[in-house]
Automatic annotation (TrEMBL), chain B:
Belongs to the ABC transporter superfamily. PROSITE patterns: ABC_TRANSPORTER_1 (PS00211), ABC_TRANSPORTER_2 (PS50893). It comes from the Bacteria. This is Peptide ABC transporter ATP-binding protein. Pfam families: ABC_tran, oligo_HPY. The keyword Ribosomal protein does not apply. Its main location: membrane. Keywords: ATP-binding, Cell membrane, Membrane, Nucleotide-binding, Transport. It is found in: Cell membrane. It is a peripheral membrane protein.
């Protein structure tokens, strides 16, 4: 018996190793593609950064000198090699405009962006799960009316674009009720409105998925058998219902998190939050290659990491997920 | 007859007693699923419940386990488990009673086990929560039960996820899981229907062996009346939400009287039937659940139907102490022998 147990344990370790390897390879491939694409994209945008920095009437000699200083006169391949080398050591270069290192810009500006994104992810995860589970349990019984109400409300919220939601929320919570600060950054309270603007629509969509998933699980024979044991309700929930709902829902949450991180960059402007979005927009305008490249890769890295974490969590909770990947 | 008080030693107590159970859907225009079902299962008895698909067998099983699906309710009648009426018990005690005394085995073993948990933890839940047994001790007991149901390497099975086991293995696990609480009765709802033909017999044999070795009563739901007749002590035949006949399994072939029971027996293929031969089927189909039935539900398909059958529901009468039947034709035939005729519960 001990031998079979050891064999099994080794088998499942192997399975984990293969699962993590496959997921890591996927993450690395995504990052490589991102590095190549951002490098190409900033250079395909028409216009000469040196010209933009020195102005339209700049002296050709000064322009050439600036190009050399920025490394723009080198062959693309050389530039690419330098760039990849930098990325591998987390050195994204220095801003053409200010001479600040991109790493420092990220360090200075990341918090307003990440704060709103993380808060939005928490809102989507917790809100979507709670509302969806609740709706699933309730609509299992009284279907028609509750179901229609739920679908109606989540359907409407689910299609509202963040800027519109943002405006609505500001009007309601900041102007009318004056519960929350309108804009700015710093305190967590100031991140609440942007997080809600970002997260409410995905939360409503996730709640719909969770409800359907909950109804599916509740109708399964294993739930009937589990109920026949008449366990305490909380055990039925934590040991039987929840993990079976989470398995398929977590990867979706991972994908939603990616859009939330991207969305946070965009919505900063609406809420006057000095985050990465502001830097990125400026960088694109003046053709500040290192800033644009560095920020895009950093944000891409955060997105890849988030969905990696979601996938691993799903695999921890639901063995079928990791077996499906390994097969 | 029956004036002398019976003592406990003579007649085993009923572990399940349904009396006049009516189950309907929960809506403004309810559909009647069970139309007054009365049956008993005594301690240690092996009872077969047969009938075509849709006759209400699973609903009976779930009503006993207090697990009717959402939207389906007990409209009237009572369910007693181990002598206690479920209605009279507060929810907590009802849960404790059912969790300990009634084990459920369902049709599809692949759907019966929680796919995200290993077998060990889900097997021992009942021991942990209803009996307060320690984890290690519960796992040891689980391994013992697994051996009893014919699993030689319980260690591996306890550490497995359900989808790593075959269907037959999973059904054995479900049975072993049900046995852990030491139940009075196992309700097995078509436990072999989803299994490979080769393992069907072994799972049935297992249930029969457990019934005799552990003295646990079994309510075996099946649509194969001949198999049930071979395995069980008693056979109860359902049609369209009613019990039409109940008799000792030994009497089934020779003494079954109800036209539906006879038709069921005739429609089961036997080993001797050549595979190409046309199977005798029962002409027609059962009534739809929504149909309002004034008379005998079998009337449209019955070769013996007479005038009153369409308008009057036949009473259940006792032919002898172990045989009841609900049929006007049988009752009229017996009218010539009034000595043996007596209304039954
Ligand atoms: N959840 C439900 N809602 C409405 N009707 C149901 C439900 N479950 C079963 N029924 C109806 O009850 C009848 C009996 O079903 P069931 O007990 O599953 O029969 P059996 O197990 O004998 O095949 C069927 O006609 C079925 O349509
Ligand atoms: S009561 Fe009438 S219709 Fe029903 S089974 Fe008997 S003879 Fe047939
Ligand atoms: Mg059934």
């Amino acid at each position: 018996m001990t031998t079979t147990t050891t064999v099994r344990a080794r088998g499942s370790t192997m399975q984990w190793a293969r699962f993590l390897l496959i997921r890591l390879v996927r993450a690395v491939v995504v990052m490589v593609v991102l590095v190549v694409v951002t490098f190409a994209m900033v250079r395909l945008v028409p216009g000469d950064p040196a010209q933009r920095i020195l102005g339209m009437n700049a002296d050709p000699v000064a322009l050439a000198a600036t190009r050399e200083r920025l490394g723009l006169d080198a062959a693309w391949l050389t530039q690419f090699a330098d760039y990849v080398n930098g990325v591998l050591t987390f050195d994204f270069g220095t801003s053409f405009q200010t001479g600040e290192t991109v790493s420092k810009i990220i360090a200075d500006r990341v918090w307003p962006t990440l704060q709103a994104a993380l808060l939005a992810i928490v809102l989507v995860a917790v809100g979507g799960l709670l509302v969806g589970l609740w709706a699933g349990v309730v609509t299992e019984r009284r279907r028609p009316v509750t179901e229609a109400t739920f679908s109606g409300i989540t359907g409407v919220i689910g299609i509202l674009p963040p800027y519109l939601l943002g405006t609505l929320l500001v009007w309601l919570f900041a102007v009318q009720l004056q519960w929350l600060p309108v804009a700015g950054s710093g305190s967590l309270a100031k991140a609440i409105l942007p997080a809600m603007a970002l997260g409410l629509a995905p939360m409503a969509m996730l709640a719909r998925v969770v409800r359907v998933e909950t109804l599916t699980v509740l109708g399964q024979d294993y739930m009937r058998l589990a109920r026949s044991k008449h366990l305490p309700g909380i055990r039925l929930f934590t040991d039987h219902l929840l993990p079976n709902v989470l398995g398929p829902v977590l990867p979706i949450l991972g994908a939603l998190s990616a859009t939330l991180i991207g969305g946070s960059v965009v919505i900063e402007r609406v809420f006057a939050r000095p985050g990465l979005g502001e830097e990125l927009a400026q960088g694109v305008q003046v053709g500040d290659f290192p800033v644009v490249q560095g920020l895009v890769i950093f944000l891409g890295g955060v997105v890849v990491l988030t969905s990696f974490i979601a996938d691993v969590l799903a695999a921890i909770i639901d063995p079928r997920v990791r077996r499906a990947v390994v097969r | 007859m029956g004036t002398a008080p019976t003592t406990r030693d003579e007649v085993p107590a009923d572990v399940i007693g349904l009396s006049d159970l009516v189950v309907t859907t929960e809506s403004s225009d309810p559909v009647v699923i069970l139309r007054g079902v009365s049956l008993t299962v005594r301690a240690g008895e092996l009872v077969g419940l047969v009938g075509e698909s849709g006759s209400g067998k699973s609903t009976v099983a779930l009503a006993i386990a207090d697990l009717l699906p959402e939207g389906v309710v007990r409209a009237s009648g009572s369910v007693r488990v181990n002598g206690e009426a479920l209605d009279a018990l507060p929810a907590k005690r009802r849960g404790a009673l059912l969790g300990r005394k009634v084990a459920l085995v369902l049709q599809d073993p692949s759907a019966s086990l929680n796919p995200v948990r290993r077998i060990g933890p889900q097997m021992i839940e009942v021991l942990r929560f209803h009996f307060g047994v320690s984890r290690a001790e519960a796992l040891r007991l689980a391994a013992d039960r697994l051996r009893e149901v014919g699993i030689d390497d319980p260690g591996r099975v306890l550490a497995s996820y359900p989808d790593m086991l075959s269907g037959g293995m999973k059904q054995r696990v479900v049975i072993a899981m049900g046995l852990l609480a030491g139940p009075e009765v196992v309700i097995a709802d078509e436990p072999t229907t989803a299994l490979d033909v080769r393992v069907q017999a072994s799972v049935l044999d297992l249930l029969v062996r457990l019934n005799s070795e552990k003295d646990v009563a079994i309510l075996l739901v099946s649509h194969n009346i001949v198999a049930v007749g071979e395995y069980c002590d008693r056979v109860i035949v359902m049609y369209a939400g009613t019990i039409v006949e109940s008799l000792a399994a030994a009497d089934l072939m020779a003494s079954a009287r109800h036209p539906y029971t006879r038709a069921l027996i005739g429609s089961v293929p036997s080993l001797e039937t050549p595979t190409q031969a046309e199977l005798p089927t029962i002409p027609g189909s059962p009534p739809d659940p929504g149909d309002v039935l004034a008379g005998c539900p079998f009337e449209p398909r019955c070769p013996l139907a007479r005038a009153r059958c369409a308008t009057e529901l036949p009473r259940r009468i006792a032919l002898d102490e172990s045989h009841t039947v609900a049929c006007w034709a049988v009752e009229e035939e017996l009218a010539q022998h009034p000595v043996r005729l007596e209304p039954s519960c």
